[in-house]
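Collaborator request log, item 7. Partner lab (contact: R.S.) asked for a structural prediction of RNA polymerase sigma factor, sigma-70 family to inform their binding assays.
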Amino acid sequence: MIKLNYLIESLKKNDEKAIRDFYDENKIGFFLFAKRYNLQSDDICDIYQDAIVALIENAKKGKIDDLKSSLSTYLFGIGKCMIFQKFKKESRNCAFDECEEVEVMYEEYNEERINLQIIELQKGFGKLGEQCRKLLRLFYYEEKRLDEILSDLGYINKDVLKSQKSRCLKQLKVLAKI
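Returned to partner:
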């Protein structure tokens, strides 16, 4: 609970290092979670960043001072609501109608499960080949566009790079048992 309280206080103070660390720790897990909703990577990135901003704002307003879940669980809940709101705007079907405030722990994504998935992702990432690690790091952590990665890693065309990124993600999912 000390770490949770420390993180909340760090968010309230706009501690850039703590925010960046939290952002990086949860990004791959959030992307894998959001991929199951068949969203484009750009949309997932936008939703993730919006969810982080909402989390910080809620911390500053004192809305999460008595949080019963981890910040990661709360963040995923915010992201899930934002995904469903996006579907609602696009008139896509979804089973979740209302999502004004996230103050409950989502059973489907409880803290223990998310933490285990993050650990498995980290282990799986370490087992990937050098090229896959570079590619996924550039795309997800450094948020580079495929055109930039194309020249950085020496790929000949964008379609080959997309296929390689897809294979790397599939391999990561297998290694992480997700």
